[in-house]
């Protein structure tokens, strides 16, 4: 089974294309559905309903959602806006804007030579890490290889040329 990435469409800005990340959306759905039984089980295990009531239990579950979504916002991107000279990663609670002057280096291991937006689950994924000046690196490995190559090309076109199809 493989999963493909769809182009959501052109953005308001000329030359910008928004790509949906199917791995991010699928992971968010699985985590959202899985958080309810885990949080409910944790609340019962720690006897939150017995001590504080069911209203506190619901508050605990909502708190768990906020914590999980905040953690996911650091490495799980739901969509990516790609245009020459600018990348915007969109996560559940934040957006990250990257421009070429702030990029120190880009690691794409192993090198990607295809623009395919298919995501086979049985094949190992390549790793994309963007190192920036003055901040932590961004690990954008949970997306199709073709999208990783497009991102690297938008930030460093001389180092990561697009193949001719």
Describe the structure.
- By secondary structure, the protein is an alpha+beta fold.
- It folds into two domains: 24-72, no CATH class; 80-155, no CATH class.
- Helices cover 36% and strands 26% of the residues.
- It contains four helices and ten strands.
- It has helices spanning 22-45, 48-52, 54-72, 145-155; strands at residues 2-4, 7-10, 17-20, 79-83, 86-90, 95-98, 103-109, 118-120, 127-132, 138-139.
- The strands form three sheets. It has a five-stranded antiparallel beta sheet. Strands 7-9-10 form a three-stranded antiparallel beta sheet, covered by helices on one side.
- A hairpin with a 6-residue loop joins strand 2 (7-10) and strand 3.
- Helix 1 (22-45) runs antiparallel to helix 3.
- The model is unreliable at 1-6 (pLDDT under 50).
Count of strand segments: 10
Structural class: alpha+beta
Low-confidence parts lasting 5 or more residues at pLDDT below 50?
1-6
Overall, the morphology is elongated
Strand line-up across the major sheet = 2-3-4-5-6
Average predicted local confidence, pLDDT = 84
Q: Main β-sheet, in a few words? A: 5 strands, antiparallel
Order of helical and strand elements: EEEHHHEEEEEEEH
Give the number of helices: 4
| Total domain modules | 2
Percent of residues in helices: 25-40%
Q: How much is the radius of gyration in Å? A: 19 Å
Distance between the termini: 24 Å
Binned strand content = 25-35%
């Amino acid at each position: 089974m493989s999963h493909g990435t769809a182009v959501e469409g052109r953005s308001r800005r000329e030359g910008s294309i928004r790509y949906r990340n199917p791995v991010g959306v699928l992971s968010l759905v699985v985590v959202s559905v899985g958080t309810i039984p885990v949080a409910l089980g944790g609340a019962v295990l720690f006897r939150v309903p017995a001590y504080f009531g069911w209203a506190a239990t619901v508050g605990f579950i909502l708190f768990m959602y906020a914590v999980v979504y905040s953690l996911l916002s650091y490495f799980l991107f739901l969509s990516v806006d790609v245009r020459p000279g600018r990348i915007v990663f969109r996560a559940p609670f934040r957006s990250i804007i990257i421009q070429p002057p702030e990029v120190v280096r880009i690691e794409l291991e192993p090198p990607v030579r295809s623009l395919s937006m298919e995501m086979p689950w049985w094949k190992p994924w390549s790793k994309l890490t963007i190192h920036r000046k003055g901040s932590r690196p961004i690990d954008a490995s949970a997306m199709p290889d073709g999208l990783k190559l497009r991102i690297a090309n938008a930030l460093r076109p001389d180092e990561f040329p697009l193949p001719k199809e």
